[in-house]
């Protein structure tokens, strides 16, 4: 079995993401539960949207993990983005004004979008068919905000945020 650059990128993404979870998720009970809720919620959201954009022919993933199961990027939809969303919610600036909350979300969306642009241009991991980078940025922004609203709602009876 030969390892292409794309397979190496996928492997590195798994290792870095797993290490980030291990290193930066606080070990207290509240943070662990909040991380789980954010992670599982975002898995549900990205799995549905990921399947839709592929089925509608907007994006393709020429190299993906499960050839016969589906055509999405399992690594991004099921693991990497939900973990990033977990950090987004754990470290959210809850006591700041909306201006800071907006820029906090922008600072999460922009690097992810830039990385996707690079991957789309130089690898076979993603291909835009009827898609553009700004759709990625917009959907990231919206899904981050949706996850934040869900976390606030879920913990509304226990949390003052």
Task: Chart the SSEs and their pairings.
Layout: H1 5-24, H2 29-55, E1 59-60, H3 74-90, H4 98-122, E2 127-128, H5 133-154
Antiparallel strand pairs: 1-2
Helix pairs in contact: 1-3, 2-3, 2-5, 4-5
Question: What can you see in these coordinates?
Answer:
This protein has 161 residues and is mainly alpha-helical. The protein has one domain. The chain has helices spanning 5-24, 29-55, 74-90, 98-122, 133-154; strands spanning 59-60, 127-128. The protein has a two-stranded antiparallel sheet with strand order 1-2. Helix 2 runs antiparallel to helix 5 (133-154). The N and C termini lie far apart (50 Å). Keywords: Membrane, Transmembrane, Transmembrane helix. The chain crosses the membrane at residues 6-25, 37-59, 71-91, 98-119, 125-144.
Characteristics:
single chain, 161 residues, mainly alpha, two-stranded antiparallel ribbon, 5 helices, 2 strands, transmembrane, CBO0543-like
Task: Please count the helical segments.
Answer: 5
The overall number of domains is 1
**DSSP, total strands:** 2
Low-confidence sequence ranges: none
What's the shape?
globular
Terminus-to-terminus distance: 50 Å
